[in-house]
Write a structure and sequence with these properties.
Blueprint: H1 12-18, E1 28-31, H2 33-36, H3 38-41, H4 49-52, E2 53-68, H5 77-86, E3 91-95, H6 101-113, E4 117-121, H7 126-134, E5 139-143, H8 144-152, E6 157-161, E7 187-195, H9 200-214, H10 217-224, E8 229-230, H11 235-256
Parallel strand pairs: 3-4, 3-5
Antiparallel strand pairs: 1-7, 2-5, 2-6, 2-7, 2-8
Helix pairs in contact: 6-11
């Protein structure tokens, strides 16, 4: 394992793998950003996702959830939209960084609801939770695992799961689909890709081995602790999902006018 954090949208490791030998011994384990959103937002990354990488396997996904500071006089997404329209510029939404999925979900809500809300980017996920609880920001999309203890303690109020299925850990919380915002869906997912040119037989062998691990009860139980589920599929399934995600988030980035400085 060679951890290479940092860079525009977490792309340092991606660039290293893009330039590696396509022999099946160097792989990239990555969240969506380096493959989907960073190439749209940032320039001169040193790689083109669809030309530099061969899809191997998806690994897991976990839905995002929208939470708000409990002092807001709202109990639903519809009420949040109404409140934001009545108080333009007074609602701030946090994200763990510029161009991250929580940022893009907040922008999608802004565009869909037609409201004036303010993005406040942070470096990482913990400080915005602290500021949300303190009322420095009023809303925040992120994973259920991040918010669950604070929800259980009554320090933040859950409004909706950004998915078409409710969370097993929060069965009383409606989905965004049920809340009248069907397009507002986003999961945090991770995958494995290889340098383009890696032989298909090696890719297929790796995919089969990864899927075998993902089917194990032990891994499923471990992922469940984080409200995540194994995402099993073929390299072709991954390729189709990857392109659909890219199209979806590119539309949000373009519509919101998101560009790196």
């Amino acid at each position: 394992m060679d951890n290479r954090p940092g860079g525009a949208g977490g792309t340092v490791g991606a660039k290293a793998v893009a330039n590696a030998s396509p022999d099946g011994y160097t792989l990239l384990f990555t969240p969506a950003a380096p493959l989907v959103t960073a190439p749209v937002i940032y320039k001169n990354l040193g790689y083109d996702p669809f030309k530099s990488f061969a899809p191997v396997a998806t690994v897991f996904s976990t839905p995002q959830i929208l939470v708000v500071n409990p002092t807001l006089p709202i109990d639903s997404m519809a009420q949040l939209a109404s409140y934001a329209k009545a108080n333009p510029g007074k609602i701030s939404f946090a994200s763990p960084g510029f161009g991250t999925q929580p940022h893009l979900l907040g922008e999608m809500f802004r565009l869909t609801a037609g409201v004036n809300i303010v993005h406040v980017p942070y470096k990482g996920a913990q400080q915005p939770v602290t500021d949300l609880i303190a009322g420095q920001v009023q809303m925040y999309f992120d994973t259920v695992a991040l918010f669950l203890p604070h929800i259980q303690a009554g320090k933040v109020k859950p409004l909706a799961i950004a998915d078409d299925m409710r969370s097993d850990q929060l069965p009383a919380v409606p989905t965004t689909v049920e809340s009248g915002f069907p397009a507002l869906q986003g999961t945090f997912w991770a995958s494995i890709v290889a340098p383009m040119g890696t032989p298909a037989d090696i890719v297929n062998m790796l995919n089969a081995s990864i899927n075998e691990i993902l089917r194990s009860p032990e891994l499923e139980a471990s992922l469940a602790k984080f409200n995540a589920k194994p995402k099993i599929g073929s390299p072709l399934d991954f390729a189709e999902f990857w392109r659909a995600e890219t199209e979806k988030w590119t539309n949000v980035i373009t519509s919101a006018g998101i560009k790196a400085d």
